[in-house]
Design a protein that fits this description.
about 220 residues, alpha+beta, two-stranded antiparallel ribbon, 9 helices, globular, DSBA-like_thioredoxin_dom, Thioredoxin-like_sf
């Protein structure tokens, strides 16, 4: 089973969707799963130093401080139900996520899911600046990636170019919001959805695969 996941590392609903999908996979147990992570940059205009988080979010959404807090509270509660922490009080910066996505791409396949989760945890639980190279290098190092080699690759210009190209490609192919999931190139799921919805998608993709082979 091939699952393509389009996400951004500062998207709380992407973290919730990831948790729901992985909970569904823990129940499914039909066959081996190959997950491919794809960048979808929600806002690439953010500079490398980032913006103050709450003022940026208020301006972007055109809402008051109280309204923004209501959104944060609602999203945090949804995270708690799913089993993930979304600590918006700790987040100080709205960040550019290009380098975070590059770290995911550089990670060996066997630890890539863990790297994604570590990046989400760094941002949503610890409020770290995941647009900072040293923060990302530390995450990679904690997962046995070579520190010097990783820093060198993250600072290369082509690293960002590749992320930008893939994010643009996603939009040109009809993906306009995240999280977005494609199962076996056939079944598409838009949004975080529930565990049951993901189970249904897995089973539907498997059924299509079997039917296709029979024909």
């Amino acid at each position: 089973m091939l699952i393509d996941i389009f996400h951004d590392t500062v998207c709380p609903w992407c973290r919730i969707g990831k948790k729901h999908l992985f909970d569904a996979l823990a129940q499914w147990e039909e066959e081996a799963v190959n997950i491919r992570w794809h960048p979808f940059l929600l806002d690439n205009t953010i500079p490398s130093e980032g913006y103050e988080f709450r003022s940026f979010m208020q301006k972007r959404k055109g809402i008051s401080s109280a309204q923004l807090q209501q959104i944060f509270d609602y999203t945090r509660q949804a995270g708690e139900v799913a089993g993930v922490q979304l600590n918006f009080d700790k987040i100080r910066l709205a960040v550019n996520t290009q380098l975070a996505h590059k770290l995911i791409a550089l990670a060996p396949v066997k630890i890539r899911n863990d790297i994604v989760e570590a990046i989400y945890q760094a941002y949503f639980e610890n409020g770290l600046n995941i647009g900072d190279i040293e923060v990302l290098v530390a995450i990679g190092k904690n997962h046995q990636m070579d520190e010097n080699n990783l820093r060198l690759k993250l600072t290369a210009n082509h690293a960002v170019d590749a992320v930008m190209a893939e994010s643009t490609f996603a939009r040109l192919n009809g993906i306009h919001s995240v999280p977005f999931f494609i199962f076996n190139n056939q079944v598409r799921i838009d949004g975080s959805q529930s565990v049951n919805v993901f189970l249904e998608a897995l089973n539907r993709a498997k059924f299509i695969e079997v039917l296709t082979k029979q024909w």
